[in-house]
Design brief:
The protein is mostly helical. Helices cover 57% and strands 4% of the residues. It has 13 helices and 5 strands. The chain has helices at residues 17-23, 33-51, 56-71, 79-96, 103-117, 130-155, 163-168, 175-205, 208-223, 233-237, 240-253, 284-288, 327-344; strands at 11-13, 261-263, 267-269, 272-274, 279-280. Helix 3 packs parallel to helix 13 and helix 9 packs antiparallel against helix 11. It comes from Vitis rotundifolia (Muscadine grape). It is found in: Membrane. Belongs to the cytochrome P450 family.
Length: 346
């Protein structure tokens, strides 16, 4: 927390140069100072504005139900792939108002797979390498999104209520910054939220008691609704144990293991001296599995979150100026998905 709360004072984001080639210089992960403040504020505005639209919750639920239906009759489901497909389709809908059956969705998804394969590869920019393919895939995705932006402008239609509507209404943005914001949201939705969902399936399969209480919570919500009636914000507020499950999945699973920082000056912290310019890697996993902070830290125990003090012993969404802008969105999407999953599958 000392590192995260001193962003731009004592520490600054400092990721390997290779990531700049893949993510682009305007990515929220990479930018610092006033540029980061501006783009993060816009990201929060995009998400907040979209959440207030009438189609926001129905779009999440519609895709959840569609995913459940698509599994009927399957002998086996590769869940991590399905979760990524679900979150990607959802982010495409919320970001660009593009449905899962449209050709451009499949096109961007294919490039996204190539993009992600090179994300942690050796940074060798030679044709044929994973890194080179990833950089080229990002260029194609950028070109596709720019085409969508131009089409929206020409048609003069800003009434979809999606993320793109919000950022097109901001005149102090370049198109490169607009594309980077959309890419950041697609990346967060496609990778981190999908990974969380897959981890929860793993943990719940090993915790029958937690799965049973989760199912009971969602049965109680469903009993108060008519057949086919969609979930509401009020229903979401009743998903207390569901949020416990999500938080515990984040603590145990550690979707983001650590972040990259550098010291801006000589820093003395307790008995340590961190020289100016040194790389600093806050490892979230170490905090989340620390037996001094969490009793039986390796156990998946959603009930530990009944103690409000547990919230102060974790940092799975980061902290300070770089607190994840999509945190609430990820929790909502996961909760709605779990609602239909536990009511339809054992």
């Amino acid at each position: 927390m000392f590192i995260l709360q001193n962003e731009e004072k004592l520490f600054q984001s400092s990721y390997p140069q290779a990531l700049h080639g893949i993510l682009g210089r305007n990515s929220l992960i990479l930018v610092s100072g006033d540029v980061h403040k501006k783009l993060r504020s816009l990201a929060l505005g995009m998400i907040g504005g979209t959440k207030s639209t009438v189609n926001f919750l129905p779009s999440i639920e519609s895709l959840s139900i569609s995913m459940m239906e698509s599994w009927k009759g399957c002998k086996e489901v590769v869940f991590c792939k399905e979760a990524k497909r679900f979150t990607f389709n959802l982010m495409m809908k919320q970001s660009l108002s593009i449905g899962p059956d449209e050709a451009v969705t499949a096109q961007i998804l294919e490039d996204f797979h190539t993009f992600m394969k090179g994300f942690v590869s050796l940074p060798i920019y030679i044709p044929g390498t994973s890194y080179h393919k990833a950089v080229k895939a990002r260029e194609r995705i950028t070109s596709t999104i720019k085409g969508i932006i131009e089409g929206r402008r020409k048609e003069n239609r800003l009434q979809n209520g999606d993320f793109l509507d919000v950022i097109l209404s901001k005149e102090n943005l370049t198109d490169e910054e607009r594309v980077s914001l959309i890419l950041d949201l697609l990346l967060g939705g496609h990778e981190t939220t999908a990974t969380l969902m897959a981890l929860l399936i793993y943990f719940l399969a090993h915790s029958p008691q937690a799965l049973q209480q989760l199912r009971e919570e969602h049965l109680a919500i469903r009993k108060n609704k008519n057949d086919g009636e969609l979930l509401s914000w009020e229903d979401y507020k009743q998903m207390n144990f569901t949020l416990n499950v999500i938080y515990e999945g984040l603590r145990c699973g550690n979707v983001v293991k650590f972040v990259h920082r550098k010291s801006l000056e000589d820093i003395r912290f307790k008995e340590y001296l961190i020289p100016a310019g040194w790389k600093v890697l806050p490892v979230f996993t170490a905090v989340h599995h620390d037996p001094c902070l969490h009793e039986n830290p390796w156990d998946f125990n959603p009930w530990r979150w009944d103690d409000q003090a547990t919230n102060k012993k974790v940092s799975f969404f980061g902290g300070g100026q770089r607190l994840c802008p999509g945190a609430d969105l990820a929790k909502l999407e996961t909760a709605f998905f779990l609602h239909h999953l536990v009511l339809n599958y054992r």
